[in-house]
Amino acid sequence: MRIVQIEPMIVEVPLRKPVTGVHGVTSVQSSVLVHVVADDGVDGWGDVDPTPGYTLESVDDIHAGVERLSGALVGLDPRNTHRALARMDETLPGAFEAKAAIEMALLDLKGRALGVPVHSLLGGRLIDEIQLNAWIGAVPPAQAAHEAADWLARGFTTAKIKVSGAGEIGLERVAAVRAAVGGRMALRVDFNESLTPDQAVPFIHALESYDLTLVEQPVARDRIDALAEIRRKIRIPLMADESVTSPASLIEIIRREAADIVKVKAMKQGGLLRTRSMVECAAAAGLRVVIGHGFGLTLSTLAEATLAATASARASIPTRSPGTAGRRKRWSKGAPAEPGRPERMGGLGGARSPPISKARRRCRRPRR
Ligand SMILES: [Mg+2]
Predict the structure, then answer these.
(1) Which helix (H) or strand (E) holds 255?
(2) CATH number of 121-336
(3) How many angstroms is it from 192 CA to the middle of ligand 1?
(4) Distances in whole angstroms, Cα of residue 204 to Cα of each of 207, 213, 215, 363
(5) Residue 362: what pLDDT?
(6) 3-116 — its CATH code?
(7) Is the pLDDT of residue 318 over 70?
(8) CA of 132 relative to ligand 1 center, distance in Å
């Protein structure tokens, strides 16, 4: 079997309503789909969903990366994922997003060719359910409280709150959400690099009374030294997200003891196989792991759910709300989970995307 075609395409999917993150307002999710075809007609699909500000490469960069990598991959056996990854690394350093999209398509193709699910290709699933985490943007406190109550009513028992900078409004947002949900939701705060090292410790101290499960990426991604210093001075577990890129970055975080928890994503780490290796590495070093997922299309969402399903127990962390019913994606049958079982956060730790209008999806050509 040989790869005969790799085609990237940019799709833009309008959200039903705009969302406000630390990097601004998003009303359209731009993603890159990749379609791989083998000489016997078997095909596979991959997808990555960059977030401007969080992801340093644009959809146009990723599209160009896939085009460049495709020339090096045509003719290879699509079932040899390691060979494909090595060839991509020889061809183009970095470009984790493009490599992730291609690898996802190759695994999809391989699974179709062999008649097995992708989790089998990753070694098999260990869990049948994963927990999804609600997402509350950098919105006015009253709106945040309303959204939190809405997520809770829909069955979610864990939520992330976006906080941009060290302003009073961020504290008010967290306070409003905690007041709205009481002890019924585990809450986290994600700063997306928006604090300076000097701001981080006093601001996180001010958040301590809200019983947060963790705080996420307070400072710039390249300040692993500052993460380590902040972690030593705060009492809330610290999660690194943007700082976790290559395997070397994870080693650096481990070496400096710069985080309690690391967030990994297939897009950010360059594919499912490499993300899984990093999960094992982090767990072996005693770090807890959240499989992250931002706003994404169905393909990437299911890919990261697949990844989470293969994560070992060592990579799971308890929430602050044991014994309550989470909003889960039941892996085998698609039915909701039984309430009352302990929750796991080794699963899909990122946001559940707001509903998107499938009918309004459209493709566009890359901007050169
Ligand atoms: Mg994050």
Answers:
(1) helix 247-256
(2) 3.20.20.120
(3) 6
(4) 5, 12, 8, 42
(5) 54
(6) 3.30.390.10
(7) no
(8) 14
Task: Tell me, in angstroms, the distance from the centre of ligand 1 to residue 191's CA.
Answer: 7
Residues near ligand 1 ion, CB 5 Å cutoff: 190, 216, 241
The ranges assigned to domains in the chain are 3-116, 121-336
Contact predicate 11/295, CB 8 Å: no
Averaged over 306-321, what is the pLDDT? 63
Active-site amino acid positions: 162, 265
Q: Please state whether beta strands 24-38 and 43-48 pair in parallel, antiparallel, or not at all (unpaired).
A: antiparallel
pLDDT attached to residue 293? 82
* pLDDT at residue 294, rounded to an integer: 80
- Greater pLDDT, 132 or 313: 132
The H or E element spanning position 85 is helix 81-91
**pLDDT mean across residues, the chain:** 87
Q: If you measure from the C-alpha of residue 82 to the centroid of ligand 1, how many angstroms do you get, rounded to a whole number?
A: 28
User: What's the CA gap between 221 and 198, in Å, rounded?
Assistant: 15
- Among residues 191, 207, 243, the alpha carbon closest in space to that of 222 is found at 243
Q: Compute the distance between CA of residue 365 and CA of residue 315 in angstroms, rounded to an integer.
A: 40
pLDDT digits (tens, 9 = 90+) for 159-191: 999 999 999 999 999 999 999 999 999 999 999
The count of C-alpha atoms lying within 13 angstroms of the C-alpha of 81, restricted to the half-sphere facing its C-beta, is 21
